[in-house]
Protein: small monomeric GTPase
Organism: Monodelphis domestica
Amino acid sequence: VMLLGDSGVGKTCFLIHFKDGAFLSGTFIATVGIDFRNKVVTVDGTKVKLQIWDTAGQERFRSVTHAYYRDAQALLLLYDITNKSSFDNIRAWLTEIHEYAQKDVVIMLLGNKADVNRERVVRSEDGQTLAREYGVPFMETSAKTGMNVELAFLAIARELKHRAGQQQPNEPSFQIHDYVESQKKQPSCCPFV
Ligand SMILES: Nc1nc2c(ncn2[C@@H]2O[C@H](COP(=O)(O)OP(=O)(O)OP(=O)(O)O)[C@@H](O)[C@H]2O)c(=O)[nH]1
């Protein structure tokens, strides 16, 4: 699983929250190149080991990260709901994904920093509309409070497990949409969506 998106959208914090349940506020240390962590999750009684690659969002590291796209089975594409350009750049990220990643890669769009709703500049509906246009599931998240962090990874793990069990793994599957949508209906989840 690869985390993608502009520098500062919260990819490293998102991964740290998932892995360690922690959030380090304060100084922002941009990722240099690429780094990974493993975490095992349980999906319907089956253990799924996720190897999660945290990429540097800065432009100067793009050539490094491009090399990893083709081995990715899933991509979490993040923008920051308080940063319009990070949202506007999502189309460019999707173009890169189209160019470098496998055709059947699982993609999920995440609007991060949903805890700072007062600084919001990207409406939830705009995230939803963009996701619908590209046919990918969407959620708003917070690496600070942990909102939907685990849910996003569980949805990915569930989809990858489902595909691994399929006769023809390249067949498109909409299970991830169904899973995300069913979880969103629960009141504890996605208060901003
Ligand atoms: N309020 C809030 N702040 C966040 C959240 N996620 C990340 N941040 C802050 O945003 C800044 C950037 O977070 P990072 O996780 O380092 O961003 P990144 O996307 O990994 O950046 P690069 O490594 O340069 O690609 C840090 O100051 C974090 O504390 C969030 O969900 N809510």
Observations:
- The longest helix spans residues 149-164.
- Confidence is low (pLDDT under 50) at residues 186-193.
- The pocket of guanosine-5'-triphosphate is lined by residues 7-13, 25, 28, 30-31, 56-58, 112-113, 115-116, 142-144 (CB under 6 Å).
- The first strand starts at residue 2 and ends at 4.
